[in-house]
Structure formats: structure tokens, C-alpha cells
From TrEMBL:
Organism from which the protein derives: Planctomyces bekefii
Entry keyword annotation includes ATP-binding: yes
InterPro entries xref list: DEAD/DEAH_box_helicase_dom, DEAD/DEAH_RhlB, DEAD_box_RNA_helicase, Helicase_ATP-bd, Helicase_C-like, P-loop_NTPase, RNA-helicase_DEAD-box_CS, RNA_helicase_DEAD_Q_motif
Entries under Gene3D superfamilies matching the protein: P-loop containing nucleotide triphosphate hydrolases
Name of this chain's protein: DEAD/DEAH box helicase
Length: 404
């Protein structure tokens, strides 16, 4: 299990039932993670709770274990709704939740776009007690009269900061207003920007806060670097870094879908390998599913992606992250880089962020966010700039920007 706690707390000290404890032992959940230790006892009381912790710390089990304890399996109505920002994360939560339910006679429904709505409607009509999905599809099913929330008593907002980042706030508010006022609300988020706090203040009742975020928001098992480079020298730099690092699995992040497609076209023409793939929000859901499945199975060595996989997707084999385009938001940097550093304890993940000379200020903002000054990635003999005389002049300015 992710991020096992090193303290002496065990699951049987958190107030979970005997059947749940037997299931956890059977599926190999030996020790609770810090967010599970902190959140589960509060959630079991029915109180609203805000949990702040980085991705990959066991947040799904933290909110789902106490939730499953409270669901009435004999009532075939929607009792729990979990909202997540992306289809991939929703599916991951869905699969993990079904695993945690074990042999409980519960029905689940996955409500996400890019999949046939008919199957989702059938699951709801079949008496789903737990619905997991993205705000857009959930609201669509509500408008069509297939998803009713009158009997709901637990609402979970997973990766709340990301849902607000990508514009889901109106959908989330409409959904929460349709829920009973006396429900329990659990909000999970890696960061707590003002928009998330406003949402909590408006739709939660005297929530208890659990802050497991660390002063160093990027874990120590990740070696991080920056590399200054001209825009048209990024591809040669990427090829050199890949040849030098020889990653077991690497995700290369771009800012745009078009940029991801262009980069994938270059690699697929050069290498003609089935171990290279691309993923972004415009791809059919079936193809996105195949890519994530291949990544988890270790069948892919190189994945070119937008921030659609920047958060929440738990893949343990990623050894390297390359930010081909510096992320637009500092928190996106944290989540992108968090995709690595999950190998065995003696293997550090590595992350390199490409920065053009005009982006010194953006790099500085990232360094402030993670409270760390990144070292420069050194590649002997590589010319990162078009003209040496310009390099000398501009690098001086780049350094001054970062000093400021």
C-alpha cells in the first residue's frame, strides 16, 4: 500500500469493523498511512472533514473505508457520491473502492464522459448505492433524471483543487445544492488555495481539518533539476537526456494537446516502438484506458502527456519525469513530479524541467512553492542555445531573474 506509516498505529485502532479489518489483512493493507490514521476516525463520526495531503498517500482508502462502513446494502438508492477531476482518477477510485468493499453486497456506478451512458444508466437503475464520477457526467445524469440524490448522506470531493483549476466549480456547486443539507461532506485536496477554502466554507458544516501536507511539498525521494534551453533546442535536449539517463519509465509533460501530439509524432517516426504512447483529453476514452493500463503493466517506456495524468494516477514504476514545457501553475509542477519517486526506497525518482530564458520568473515561483532551489542539469558538450553571444547575455539576465 502507498506510503505506509512508520508509527505503531494499526488499522484496528481506528474504529473500523471486524469484517473490514479482516478484509484489509487479506488484501495486504498492513499499516495505515498518516492520512488514514488522521481521517478515518473523524469520518466514522459523521463529521465533515477536510483532508490535505499529497497524492499517493492512500487518500482513497482514507475516505472510502469509513464511507463503506456506513452504507446500507439493503437500500438500493444512491447514498454516496464521489466527485473526481478526471475520468482516469474516477476509474482508479472506482476500482480501489470495489476492492475495499470486498464481498459486501454493494452496487457501484462509474459516471464519466467518454463511456456509453446506457451502461451507467443501467447501473443506476440496478440500485447503485455508491456513485463515482466526474462533475460533468454526474450533472448530465442528474438533468436527465437518472441520478437522484435525495437519499444521499455522504459527498466526497477528491482532488478538489484540481477540479476547481479545470473549471468544475459551477458543476460542483449545482451538485452539492441538490444534495440533502444534513449530509456528511469529505473534501480531499493536495493544496488549499482560496477557491477551495471558499467552497468548504459554503458547503461544509464546521469541518475538522487534517493537514498532512509537508513543508517540503515534493518528497525527498525525487531528485529535481532545471535545464535552460531555447524553444527550438528542446527536442535535441530531450533526446540527449533520455540517452544519458536511460529511464525505466518516463513521462514527458507538455502544456497543450497539440504539443503532445507533435512530440509523439516525432518519436513514433524515429523509433517505431510500441513502447511509446501519448495521452491527452481529446483522445477517445477507450484509447486513454489502454494507455494507462499499458503504463501500469510496464509495457510503456515513454509516455507523452498533458496534465490529464498530472494528478492522482498511481503508477509505481515511473523513474523519470521530464517537464518539456514548464507547467502553467506551481501546483501542477508538484503533482507532475509526484508521479515519480515511488520505486523501492533505494531508488530515487528524477525530474528535469525545461526552462526557456524568458521563463526565469516561472521557475522562481516553482522554487518558492516547493521551498527548494533547483540545481541545473549538466550535459557536457550540449549546446542549448542558438548563438553563443546571445547565450552569454541572456543567461546573465536569467540568473538575475531567479535571484530576485
Amino acid at each position: 500500500m502507498d506510503d505506509s506509516s512508520e508509527n505503531t498505529v494499526t488499522f484496528d485502532q481506528l474504529g473500523l469493523s471486524a469484517p473490514t479489518l479482516r478484509l484489509l489483512a487479506k488484501i495486504g493493507y498492513d499499516h495505515p498511512s498518516p492520512i488514514q490514521v488522521a481521517l478515518i476516525p473523524i469520518a466514522l463520526t459523521g463529521r465533515d472533514c477536510i483532508g490535505q495531503a499529497r497524492t499517493g498517500t492512500g487518500k482513497t482508502a482514507a475516505f472510502m473505508l469509513p464511507t463503506l462502513e456506513q452504507v446500507d446494502s439493503e437500500r438500493g438508492v444512491v447514498q454516496v457520491l464521489v466527485l473526481a477531476p478526471t475520468r482516469e482518477l474516477s476509474e482508479q477510485v472506482y476500482l480501489e473502492s470495489r476492492k475495499l468493499a470486498g464481498n459486501m453486497p454493494l452496487n457501484f456506478a462509474l459516471a464519466v464522459g467518454g463511456r456509453p451512458m446506457g451502461r451507467q444508466i443501467d447501473d443506476l437503475r440496478g440500485g447503485a448505492q455508491i456513485v463515482i464520477g466526474t462533475p460533468g457526467r454526474v450533472q448530465d445524469l442528474m438533468k436527465r433524471g437518472h441520478l437522484r440524490l435525495e437519499e444521499l448522506f455522504i459527498a466526497v470531493l477528491d482532488e478538489a483543487d484540481r477540479m476547481l483549476d479545470i473549471g468544475f466549480r459551477p458543476d460542483i456547486e449545482r451538485i452539492l445544492r441538490a444534495c440533502p443539507k444534513d449530509r456528511q461532506t469529505l473534501l480531499l485536496s493536495a493544496t488549499m488555495p482560496p477557491d477551495v477554502m471558499k467552497l468548504a466554507q459554503r458547503y461544509m458544516v464546521d469541518p475538522e481539518s487534517v493537514d498532512l501536507s509537508e513543508d517540503r511539498v515534493v518528497v525527498d525521494t525525487i531528485e529535481q533539476f532545471y535545464a535552460t534551453v531555447d524553444e527550438d533546442r528542446k527536442l535535441p535536449l530531450l533526446l540527449r537526456i533520455l540517452a544519458h539517463e536511460k529511464p525505466s519509465q518516463v513521462i514527458v509533460f507538455t502544456r497543450t494537446k497539440r504539443g503532445a501530439d507533435k512530440l509523439y509524432d516525432v518519436f513514433s517516426r524515429r523509433l517505431k516502438s510500441s513502447r511509446i504512447a501519448c495521452i491527452h483529453g481529446d483522445m477517445p476514452q477507450s484509447k486513454r484506458d489502454r494507455v494507462i493500463k499499458a503504463l501500469r503493466a510496464g509495457e510503456l517506456r515513454l509516455l507523452i502527456a498533458t496534465d490529464v495524468v498530472g494528478r492522482g494516477i498511481d503508477v509505481s514504476g515511473i523513474s523519470h519525469i521530464i517537464n518539456y514545457d514548464i507547467p502553467e501553475y506551481c501546483d501542477d509542477y508538484v503533482h507532475r513530479v509526484g508521479r515519480t519517486g515511488r520505486l523501492s526506497s533505494d531508488q530515487n525518482g528524477r525530474a528535469v524541467t525545461f526552462v526557456t530564458l524568458a521563463q526565469g520568473g516561472e521557475l522562481t515561483n516553482i522554487e518558492k512553492r516547493i521551498n527548494t532551489v533547483l540545481p541545473e542539469y549538466e550535459l557536457e558538450g550540449f549546446e542549448a542555445f542558438r548563438r553563443r553571444e546571445r547565450r552569454s547575455r541572456e543567461v546573465k539576465r536569467f540568473g538575475a531573474d531567479r535571484d530576485e
